[in-house]
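Appendix B. Chain record.
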Amino acid sequence: MGTNMTFGDVELRSAFPSKPPSHVTQEPFDSGPKHLGALARLHPGDRAQPGDLWEYTQDLLYSGEIQGPLLTFMLPYCLEAWRDNLRGRHAGYGGFVEHFYPVLANKHVLDRYLTHAQTLAVSQFMRESILAEIDDQRGLAYKGMGARPYRWIRALTTHGVLLPDISRLWMAWWSTSTDTVGRAVATVQYVSCLMYEPNENPVFAAWTRDEGGGPPCLWEFGGHLYEKRWLEPNIQFLRDNLNRPSVGEALDRAVSRLANQPEHKLAVEVQQDLPLCAETLVARCAQLPDLLETTQRPLEWKR
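Structure tokens predicted for this chain:
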């Protein structure tokens, strides 16, 4: 195992074919087949060109039949590009990711073309990638739409649309916020969005016309998933586990973990504000599952 590989990487690569099909029969949607040839020549460790991946998502979404063997060969490369975008390693993959999410959600790829073992490997890889980004979170003062927390929050929220195991991702982060500084920081980031009015959040500066920003939207999905919702097991999990006591306990753990860290002072301020914001917090904990199961957009907090 390479130093940059996780257990999820190994599981992903072992679950999918390392070689493409002998004949590429995937029909291109609105271009020639050049990108398909380039993708079929990839080897483990290679990174696909963003433009080739973007064109491939158009093939998958709009050309009709999907060539299953090419898809299962390509999925590890697609997921590695998705992770590079999530982790901020390659901004060029952003356009691809916007269409990769609908491929997974709209075309039912995980149900129709993958074995159970392959779906489990995809889920593990995505969960580990999001947790790795959470573990690297630092800082509790953000301004503008380019702020790093938007990436992990959007990925976590979108995961609930794609796979029914948000409980495993949530508990690995929320209940173990003392394991790493990043998990503690991420807890404070997320809780602040449940507590404060948009113009009063001490972690995320208010939105401005020039820079955007403001607190992340906790029900906004990545990609073009305008009429999608969280899967029912995920909704039920959140209803059962997101409440005033669980938020208070998670925030207490996070503040304890951040002792002697630069983020500690502001984390304590958020902790001290919790009783003052309790009414808003309770209302939003109840509202968030409703917002995540609603297919009509746009949405907003009721308070």
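Further analysis of this model is presented in Appendix C.
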